[in-house]
Design goal:
6 strands, six-stranded antiparallel β-sheet, alpha+beta
């Protein structure tokens, strides 16, 4: 799975992210007025798992002043990625879904599920690898 993101303009159905300091927040870009991602109902509840839902916001609200990064799809990934329309359809069909879980169902899991039909999170994998290495 690619962890290759760069600062550039997003295109329809791009996997995007923004650095939030301790973590990256991920979503699916459909337009400057439509980014679909796991989020809170307001800024106070953004990290409250019980209130997190798949929501639609505009790009500015998604970025919250951060810098947009767009995922570069590898040749290997290109063989399994869904079409742009299928990515968008899946994201729209997921609106309102709950069940946020930092380890098993976070915003990066959601973005990868939209793209490939499979929940994966490089952030979680990297952190768990470090924890397990420390415990040895």
């Amino acid at each position: 799975m690619s962890n290759n993101f760069e600062i550039k303009k997003a295109t329809y159905a791009s996997h995007i992210r923004v650095n939030r300091g301790l973590y990256y927040h991920h979503g699916i870009y459909l337009s400057d007025d439509c980014v679909i991602h796991f989020g809170g109902t307001d800024s106070d509840n953004i990290l409250d798992p019980s209130k997190a839902r798949v929501i639609k916001t505009n790009l500015d609200d998604f970025l919250k002043g951060g810098i947009l990064e767009v995922r570069n799809i590898t040749q290997e990934e290109a063989a399994t990625i869904r079409s742009s329309q299928d990515i968008a359809n899946y994201a729209f069909a997921s609106l309102g879904n709950a069940g946020y879980d930092l380890v098993n169902n976070n915003c990066e899991h959601f973005a990868n599920e939209c793209l490939f039909g499979e929940k994966k999170s490089m952030q979680v994998n990297e952190i768990l690898s470090k924890i397990f290495a420390y415990m040895k």
